[in-house]
């Protein structure tokens, strides 16, 4: 891999490790949520939460691969986990929205570090930003009342 000499590899590795930690926290968070869903719509919601957990694990693995590509050591930490003891679907979705927004910011931070210095890392950051923005929109739409076109605040 050709890396621009102006790329601060330590900053990029730290940013990727932060992403890994957020994504691993997502694995734990979505797995927990999937176990706490009750009611008539349990099956499709649990399925959606489990797929988010799997996706978070895939994202963490990708970030870790890039850490090692840069010669770094992948983090063993897990990002912040908040247990509110609230398990209403709305509460779960609002917590997810907060978590996903923080993870999105981590990808933006990586983009700022690598922009114009590594096509590989820049494209990775942009792809993941797109994925996270779409995921945030999906959660936002789930939080809206039927017929409400305005984004959830």
The level of helicity is 55-70%
CATH superfamily: Ferritin, core subunit, four-helix bundle
Looking at the structure, the CATH topology is Ferritin
Order of helices and strands: HHHH
CA distance, first residue to last residue: 42 Å
- Which segments are poorly predicted (pLDDT under 50) over 5 or more consecutive residues? none
The average pLDDT is: 93
* CATH architect. name: Up-down Bundle
Q: In this structure, how is the largest beta sheet organized?
A: none
Strand composition percent: under 5%
Integer tally of domains: 1
Radius of gyration using CA atoms only: 17 Å
What is the count of β-strands?
0
Q: How would you characterize the overall build of this protein?
A:
This protein has 153 residues and is mainly alpha-helical. The chain has one domain: Ferritin, CATH 1.20.1260.10. Helix content is 69%, strand content 0%. It has four helices and no strands. α1 packs antiparallel against α2 and α3 runs antiparallel to α4. The relative contact order is 0.17.
